[in-house]
From TrEMBL:
Keywords on record: Oxidoreductase
InterPro entries reported in the protein's UniProt record: FAD-linked_oxidoreductase-like (IPR029041), Proline_DH_dom (IPR002872), Proline_oxidase (IPR015659), PutA_N (IPR041514)
Pfam families on file: Pro_dh, PutA_N
Domain Proline dehydrogenase intervals: 133-429
Keyword Lyase appears in the UniProt entry: no
Chain ranges of the Proline utilization A N-terminal domain: 10-98
Gene3D superfamilies (alphabetical): 3.20.20.220
PANTHER family from the UniProt entry: PROLINE DEHYDROGENASE 1, MITOCHONDRIAL, PROLINE OXIDASE
Name by which UniProt lists this protein: 1-pyrroline-5-carboxylate dehydrogenase
UniProt keyword Oxidoreductase, yes or no: yes
């Protein structure tokens, strides 16, 4: 194991972080840059936070509204009833105006159109065929992608089997994107497919763990077989904490089956906001060594923080996640070290838009002697495009997490992405709006935690 001094690593992390930020700024400061206008829009969300929240609540309910009148009625309810920064006199004037039938019809139709149009920034298409031109655009930028079929947990077995069919259809259509990148450890498929296991079994339950694992293995095997045939990569996505032990056991058992243990293109997701994430990593490292070929671990911060905290408090349980962002950021860096030190028994994919976190990963990997193509950076489709360009130019493999699906089941995903883009704690928000200095954005999370004590 290579010994790296914490002082040298910290200095290199900050140097690289500044380089990425400055290079990004040079590329995105022009008047005709998409990023230039995103900065202005994000700035509005800082000035009017109440309006932002109510607007996103409206977007979340929009797919269930059938008529233009329904849309304008809810628009008035969420935005013009005095809860937001809109002055009461102006709210009264606007409510009166949109109650007129012709105006109501035109406005309702226009709102639906613009929300659906905006969703295309985050959702590549209803299906693989519709998304093809956007996927080709990603490849032309020398980037690769992960396909994610949108939708929450299946509510019936009929729906679960329909999701299984969708995964199989996507894998069947991948021929036009088949191919590999060659790396120092072997080949890496251009295409990943993320599988949400809760979509494959409607009765998944932590109270029936063994049965849940058994059924999920049956549902997964046809998907894994087709992935092997198509030389595609399958990633078992992370979900809420309640399913974690099911998913961990499922991955370990099925990836060690004789039929699949020799295939190198399977992966799992670890969420750094979980307090036991390092123990989970050690478990994956152990069974990856038994396979003889590596498992890929996608490390993310986690997407269900509020849900986990609220549910744990409601049930009187111990909260499974770190309760501060700085603690999660620090754990992300510590998990990153474990992953990179485990190469090549474990391959790593780092999902983040936080430049401090990514700069740490890149600096530690370099000091470990890893090639920039020995791991990959993953970012969400429609977010941080200028950063993706910078990292690609620096020689790193960048993969875009690309959703497919109808806007109705995808709306929850869309709202989460919009909230991430405008979160007051979000790195992109803080940097793009210029609200916080570079030195603070690149601050070691250890120092942030110490400052709060």
């Amino acid at each position: 194991m290579i010994t790296i001094s914490s002082e040298d690593l910290e200095a290199e992390t900050k140097r690289l972080g500044v380089r990425i930020i400055e290079q990004n700024e040079r590329q995105s400061s022009g008047l005709f840059s998409k990023q230039f206008w995103i900065k202005r829009l994000l700035g509005l969300s800082v000035r009017y936070p109440k309006l932002k929240i109510e607007l996103f609540r409206f977007v979340d309910v929009l797919p269930s509204l059938r008529s233009s009148k329904d849309i304008t009625d809810h628009l008035s309810l969420y935005l013009l009833d005095g809860k937001t920064e809109i002055p009461k006199w102006l709210g009264f004037f606007l409510r009166t105006g949109i109650s007129i039938l012709p105006i109501s019809f035109v406005l309702g139709s226009s709102v639906r159109f613009f929300v659906l149009y905006a969703s295309k920034n985050f959702i590549a298409g209803k299906n693989f065929t519709e998304a093809k031109h956007r996927l080709l655009s990603i490849r032309k930028k020398s980037r690769v992608f992960t396909l994610d079929i949108l939708g929450e947990a299946a509510l019936s077995e009929k729906e679960a089997l329909r999701y299984q069919k969708q995964y199989l259809e996507v894998l069947s259509d991948l021929d036009s994107f088949s191919g590999f990148e060659q790396t120092s450890y072997g080949s890496c498929p251009y295409v990943n497919v993320s599988v949400k296991c809760s979509s494959l079994y409607s009765q998944i339950s932590s109270l029936a763990k063994e049965n849940s694992v058994s059924v999920l293995k049956e549902r997964l095997r046809p998907i894994l077989r087709l992935a092997k045939e198509k030389n595609a990569f399958i990633n078992l996505d992370a979900e809420q904490f309640d399913y974690k032990e099911i998913l961990m056991s499922l991955a370990e058992e099925i990836f060690l089956e004789e039929e699949f243990k020799g295939y190198p293109h399977f992966g799992v997701v670890i969420q750094a906001y979980l307090q036991n994430s390092k123990e989970d990593l050690q478990r994956i490292i152990s069974y990856s060594e038994k396979r003889g070929v590596p498992i890929t671990v996608r490390l993310v911060k986690g997407a269900y923080w509020e849900y986990e905290v609220i549910k744990a408090k409601e049930k009187g349980w111990e909260i499974p996640v770190f309760e501060s962002k700085a603690e999660t950021d620090l754990n992300y860096e510590e998990c990153s070290r474990i992953l990179l030190e485990s190469f090549p028994n474990i391959l790593s994919a780092f999902g983040s838009h936080n430049i401090r976190s990514l700069a740490f990963v890149l600096s530690f990997a370099e000091k470990q002697g890893l090639n920039p193509r020995d791991f990959e950076i993953q970012m969400l489709y429609g977010m941080g495009d200028s950063y993706k360009s910078v990292l690609t130019q620096l020689g790193y493999r960048v993969r875009e997490y690309t959703p497919l699906g109808e806007i109705l089941p995808g709306m929850a995903y869309l709202v989460r992405r919009l909230l991430e883009n405008t979160s007051n704690q979000g790195f992109l928000q803080n940097f793009l709006t210029g609200r916080i200095k570079q030195t603070h954005l690149l601050q070691n999370p250890k120092e942030t935690i110490h400052d709060k004590l």
